Amino acid sequence: METLYFVIPCYNEEEMLPLTAKALIGKMDQLMKDGRISPDSKVMFVDDGSKDNTWEIIEKLHASHPMFTGVKLSRNRGHQNALLAGMMTARKYADIIVSMDADLQDDINAVDGFLDKRAEGCEIVYGVRSSREKDSRFKRGTARAYYKLLSKMGVEITYDHADYRLMSRRAVDALADFPEVNLFLRGLVPMLGFKSDKVEYVRNERQAGESKYPLKKMLSFAVEGITSLSVKPIRFITTIGLLVFLVSIFMLIYFFVLWCMGRTVAGWTTTVVSVWALGGLQLLAIGVIGEYIGKIYLETKHRPTFIIDRDLEAEENETMKGENYDGK
User: Fold this and answer.
1) Domain range summary for the chain, segments of one domain joined by +
2) Are the C-beta atoms of residues 192 and 124 closer than 8 Å to each other?
3) Which one of 11, 120, 136, 256 is CB 3.0 to 4.6 Å from 48, fit for a cystine?
4) Handedness of CA 307, 309, 313, 316 (dihedral sign)
5) Region of 97 on the Ramachandran plot (φ > 0 left; ψ -120 to 50 alpha; else beta)
6) Does domain 4-229+303-327 have CATH number 3.90.550.10?
7) Residue 279 has pLDDT above 80, yes or no
8) What span, in angstroms and rounded, lies between the C-alpha atoms of 84 and 270?
9) pTM of the predicted model, to two decimals?
10) Residues facing 4 on adjacent strands
11) Distance between CA atoms of 168 and 172, rounded to whole angstroms?
C-alpha cells in the first residue's frame, strides 16, 4: 500500500478548516479501512501567510490527531507557490500526493477514481469538472475562452482542470527540476510527460468563508498562464507590425500615385487616426514585451519561490529522535 498525502494550501481559511478536516478524516479512515492507502497517510495543510487563526487551527488539528500535519510559510506567496511548497515537503514522506483547495468544492470522493487510475500505472491523474452549470454565464464563457486561448498559444493544458490532481513521488521529483519563479502548475504538470489520465467529478459550492480569487486575481493568473508558457504573444505582435508596415508601404505608393495625378487629398482624419492607431499599437507591443522582460528579470534573480517557517512533520520527527536518543 502506498502512503498518500493530501496537500491543501490555506489562506485565511479559519471558517473552513474544521469542516475540511472533518470531511478528510472520514475519507482517509475509509480508504485505510478498505486497504487502499497506508495507515501512515496524512493531510498536510499549508498556511500561506494567513492573517487570521488558520495556523493556530492547523496546530490544534496536528496536536489532536496524528493524521494532520502542517507547513507554515514565512509570508504570503500565493496559491501556486504554497501548493508547490506543500508538494516539495510532502514528497519526503509520501508515495502519492493529492493536491486540492481547502474549500471542499473539489469532491473528495473523486480520490477513489484517482487511486483506481494509479493502480493502472498512472503517475498523474487530473480531476476534471464534468459540468460548469453551477457557474455564472460570464464565468463559464470566460473559462472556456481562456482554455481555448491557451491551446491556441501552444500551451498543453487539461480543460476544466484546476489544481485537483494526484501525482506520484516520481512525478513530483521531476517537477522539482523546473526551477521557475513564475509558476503556472496547470501548464507545467502536463509537460512532465508521464502516463496520465482524468477523473470527472461534480464541483460543489463553498460551504464557509469566501473565495480568495476575485476577478482581479483571476485575470492576473490568466496572464501568468499565457506569458509563463508561451512566446506566441510576442510573435503575434511581430506579425501585426509586419502587416502594418506592408500597409504603410501600400499607402505610400497610393498617395504618391495620387500626387503624380495632381489630385489633392484631404487627409487630416486619416492622419490623426493613423497616428493614434500606430501609437496604441506601439504601446501595446511595449507592454507585452515588458511583461516578458519582467519575468526574465525575476527568473535571473533565482529567488526562492517560498520559505518555510514551520514544518510540523519535521519538528515531530526531530522530537521523536531526541526522545529515542535520551532513552538510549
Assistant:
1) 4-229+303-327
2) yes
3) 11
4) positive
5) beta
6) yes
7) no
8) 53
9) 0.75
10) 96
11) 6
